[in-house]
């Protein structure tokens, strides 16, 4: 997953994108209340991308892609050709799959590992049925737990380097399970990701926010919530190419309604879109500190799951190193200026 985390150069004309997110299907069979597809808040037609359309996209992204997410708003394993899609991408890029695992039996786990999926995210948001189904409405926790075992068995059988990331959204009703969760997976070949929840409203925040502040994504007060993140520094428009099921390319995966389109992959090449007028105008808004309605809405979560987990670890390490060096830096204005320049050169000037 680390490849997805390169330091981005935030300029009007950055390098071609290396991360591609492609919505191969818009639909899901669960009803998670804070998910835009689960709570039916996406008014785009619920579609499945034809395999031939995906092939067309693959031909266009092949020279650039290093990391591909063949899903966005939807459950990727519901696509009947998902394994053919993975097989198309694997020769030139790493593949990430994220699934609720309601349809993942031993045979599918075998196919996932044999297909060479690099990172597989399992959504496990409760250890008992009554905690699990508060959020994963319509799902069964025993299916997820069995799926994790199937994946581990296949990983071991194939001696596969696949990363199995068990993701747990920490909420009010399941936070007491966190110690047990850690214990459960302590000696298993999986990574654990404890994740803060995205919500759609103040009411939802009141219902779901756990007591532990480290899992809060929002500040709350007076009937309002505000995302805790510096959205002006967002890198989505500088490094990720996000394709909706109809081929529209949008500013980021949180643009679930396709509000800010920069082109259509079936009508143009990657570079025509990436360096087109609309993409340049979008980047200019970020570089001048202006945000559009998608960014300022509650939809924005500032990064996808795997990235967020890794980014959080990375940020912590950088922050710790920074804190340790602070006394030295403060004594030396020259070092301070040098660090400022390095930071600007690598991450841009927002
Ligand atoms: S909505 Fe959020 S993630 Fe998307 S471009 Fe705006 S700040 Fe970035």
Task: Please give a structural write-up.
This protein is α/β, with parallel strands linked by helices and 350 residues long. The protein contains 13 helices and eleven strands. Helix 1 (51-61) packs parallel to helix 2 (82-89) and helix 3 (106-114) packs across helix 5 (141-158). The chain binds iron/sulfur cluster. Iron/sulfur cluster (SF4) binds next to helix 8 and helix 11.
Summarize it.
This protein is an alpha/beta fold. It has 13 helices and eleven strands.
Secondary-structure map:
Blueprint: E1 19-22, H1 51-61, E2 67-69, H2 82-89, E3 94-99, H3 106-114, E4 119-123, H4 129-135, H5 141-158, E5 163-169, H6 178-185, E6 191-195, H7 202-208, E7 218-221, E8 224-227, H8 236-239, E9 240-243, E10 248-250, E11 261-264, H9 270-274, H10 277-287, H11 293-296, H12 305-331, H13 333-347
Parallel strand pairs: 1-2, 1-9, 2-3, 3-4, 4-5, 5-6
Antiparallel strand pairs: 7-8, 9-10, 10-11
Helix pairs in contact: 1-2, 3-5
Iron/sulfur cluster binds at residues 231, 234, 236-237, 251-252, 254, 294-295, 300, 302.
Alpha-beta content class: alpha/beta
Strand order within the widest beta sheet: 6-5-4-3-2-1-9-10-11
Tell me the strand percentage band: 5-15%
Major sheet description: 9 strands, mixed
User: Rg to the nearest angstrom?
Assistant: 20 Å
Unique bound compounds: iron/sulfur cluster
Mean pLDDT, to the nearest integer, reads 88
Distance from first to last alpha carbon: 25 Å
Tell me the series of helices and strands, N- to C-terminal: EHEHEHEHHEHEHEEHEEEHHHHH
- Could you give the count of β-strands? 11
| Overall 3D shape | globular
pLDDT < 50 runs, ≥5 residues: 1-6, 303-316, 343-350
Q: How large is the count of helical segments?
A: 13
Give the % helix: 25-40%
């Amino acid at each position: 997953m680390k490849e997805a985390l390169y330091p981005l150069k935030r300029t009007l004309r950055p390098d071609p994108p290396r991360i591609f997110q492609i919505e191969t299907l818009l639909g899901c069979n669960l009803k998670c209340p804070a998910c835009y597809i689960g709570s039916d808040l996406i008014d785009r037609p619920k579609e499945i991308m034809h395999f031939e359309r995906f092939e067309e996209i693959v031909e266009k992204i092949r020279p650039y892609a290093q990391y591909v997410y063949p899903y966005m708003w939807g459950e990727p394993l519901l696509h009947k050709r998902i394994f053919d899609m993975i097989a198309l991408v694997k020769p030139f890029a790493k593949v990430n799959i994220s699934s609720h695992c309601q349809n993942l039996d031993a045979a599918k786990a075998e196919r996932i590992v044999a297909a060479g999926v690099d990172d597989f995210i399992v959504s496990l948001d409760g250890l008992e049925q009554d905690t699990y189904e508060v959020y994963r409405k319509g799902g069964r926790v025993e299916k997820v737990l069995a799926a994790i075992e199937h994946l581990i068995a296949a990983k071991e059988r194939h001696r596969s380097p696949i990363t199995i990331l068990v993701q747990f959204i920490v909420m009010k009703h399941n936070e007491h399970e966190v110690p047990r969760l850690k214990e459960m997976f302590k000696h298993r070949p999986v990574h654990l990701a404890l994740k803060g929840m995205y919500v759609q409203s103040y009411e939802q925040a009141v219902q779901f926010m756990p007591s532990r502040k480290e899992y809060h994504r929002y500040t709350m007060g007076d009937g309002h919530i505000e995302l805790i993140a510096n959205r002006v520094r967002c890198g989505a428009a500088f490094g990720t190419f996000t394709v909706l099921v109809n081929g529209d390319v949008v500013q980021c995966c949180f643009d679930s309604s396709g509000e800010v389109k920069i082109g259509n992959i079936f009508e143009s090449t990657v570079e025509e879109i990436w360096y087109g007028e609309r993409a340049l105008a979008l980047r200019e808004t970020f570089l001048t500190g202006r945000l559009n309605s998608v960014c300022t809405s509650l939809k924005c979560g500032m990064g996808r799951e795997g990235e967020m987990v890794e980014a959080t670890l990375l940020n912590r390490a950088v922050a710790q190193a920074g804190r340790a060096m602070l006394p030295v830096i403060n004594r030396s204005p020259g070092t301070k200026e040098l660090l400022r320049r390095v930071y600007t050169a690598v991450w841009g000037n927002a």
